[in-house]
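Chapter review: from sequence to fold.
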Amino acid sequence: MFARVFSLAAAACFSAGLIHAQFDSGQISGFVRDPSGASVPGAGVIATNEGTKQAHRTVTNSDGYYVFPQLLVGTYTLVIEAPGFKRYVKAGIALNAEARVNSDVDLTVGAANESVEVTASSAAVQIDSAQVSTTIETKQMQDLTLNGRNPIYLAALSPGVVGGTIGTFDPDSVSNGSFNINGGRPDEYIVVIDGAMATRTRSSGSMVGTLDVDTVQEAQVLSGNYSAEYGRSSGGQIRFVTKSGTRDFHGDLAENFRNSALDANTWTRNHSPQASTAAGPAPYRFNQYGFDVGGPIFIPNHFNSDRNKLFFFWGEEWVKRRYDTTNTGTVPSVAMRSGDFSELLNPANSFFGKVRVINDPTNGAPFPGNIIPSNRISHNGQALLNIFPLPVAGFQQGTTNWIGTKSTHSDFRKDTFKFDYLITDKQHLSVRAGYDPWHFNAPFEDTFGRMEEVWSRPNRVRAISLISTFSPTLVNETDGGDRCGFRSRDGRLRGECPAHAGGPTRRDPRRSRAREARRLHALGGQIRLSHCKRSRAQEMGAIQRRVDLGSEQGNLSERYPAFRACLAAWCGCDADLPM
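The token string follows.
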């Protein structure tokens, strides 16, 4: 009694530290009959994995029924023997994740040393389950051109899946693909790798890890009526089964390469007044390379000499990108920085294409010539304005008069390790680990590249499974797994801040991304207002208020955030701007 209680307590402690995981497996079953259709009880049935040569044995019951309930994904050969009948051999039975393959056999009378050999059909019809699913196998992955080699987009091949496309170039990403499965929302399905959850809990639109396509044996999309054992999601599941080692050594090498020397220049860059920008495409270097190898682990004449007990599979892929990102924006002209908005009186001005009049907020009257007097300019407003860059001479595309280029980098590594140990023909231990560190930057967190983010995202997904078959009707599977997808980012302000403005500002991790982006986009740094009669809150409130610009109040400052600082430059500290 004590031992039983202790075992239950130990199992509970073990489960508490791990998330639920269940390695995907399948089932082969059927009835064995004689030529008259009568059942053949006691017939010996062997299902052998053609890759590892692991043999699973059972016998038919009194009804001639046999079943192998927990077979790992792979290709199997079925052998059936019974006294007075020829030996039956059926090869090439493809077993996918959660497949229930029915293989009924009619034995032929004859000697045991004679055999009947057949090859399984590639088209199997599911007749004992209402599950709606699609399986993409290794051969399909090899025959398809998968842009970026990100296997998550294989789900787009499934009926009922819309959203992403198989042609999406997204090699260095942990996105879940943003699909709609059977009408569900993109955050209502999950991604599973070898039974372990790979969806990021806090943000279901991303994963804590991804896969090298060469390490995937099959991808399965469950879109409806799947078994309750899966649970967790109402909008479907995308499940990956990774490859395992076999008795023979196998390996692959891959390299994808792109270079700006093979690209044409963009329309925007062609119209840049900067000679270096207009001369050719932005620098771009893309390298995606890797390898995978699998086979047996053995020591001749000492351990696993038959190469049918312990197997490994190891795959690594590197994705490296180096390129320039070009952005455009609208900034106040040089004259506007000193309070001269006279160019807005021209109906053909490039900012609005119509006349805009600047009114004095104290009396509502237009400023003479649309020029704000210098004594109305605030030092704090001027400091804010100087955060924004000057227009690029000679560059004008519609309303945009600024163009800039920043360097961008992304380094992503995908590691996959898997070990399979066939302890006995009744016990199978599988261990898998995936580690996917990703380091990249986002140089244009604001329009003008003054704010840059540098990211570090180490991701991992691990799973372990022990399958024990006690009898054809009693199978125990002990599973565990965990995932980790924390991230670290550092935001910093580019360049030097002007007078009356604070130094480079790092992003406060306690702020939401949107809130912090708005703060830095509007201010460009921490503003010191100790010399001003207003409090910081009052000054910021004044800056945020609308300015009457003729018939459309606030239109200019709302369309172009840079103008907010420009117009604030002429509201002195003591000015009171009405809403």
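Two observations follow directly from the output. The longest strand covers residues 402-424. Residues 172 and 412 are 6 Å apart (CA to CA).
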